[in-house]
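Quick one:
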Amino acid sequence: MILRRPVRLMVLAGACLLPLLTWAQSTPADYLREFDTDGDGRVSEAEYVAHLSEGFHRLDSNGDGVLEADELPGGHGKPITLKQFQDNLRRQFHKLDRNHDGYLDARELTQPPQ
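Output:
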């Protein structure tokens, strides 16, 4: 099965996010604190990308900044670079930032992108 690039990126993002989705067992405020490294009560694009890139790094077993087919969920697909993955995260961030203030609050962070 060949996935189109946006679909493949979403599948990969989901696989990287799965271990991080602890908010299902906690409050939105608790989930926000996992991302909010500077403690200002909101999540910047940089904090969002850094936190969710942890999943990419866990999958990148050889540490070369590229997820090859054998490192991808299901063991197949085209390679994806860290830059491509992070560019996708930035697009997701801006979809989540519904009030367009450049930050995510707990409500925005826990809602699915549109």
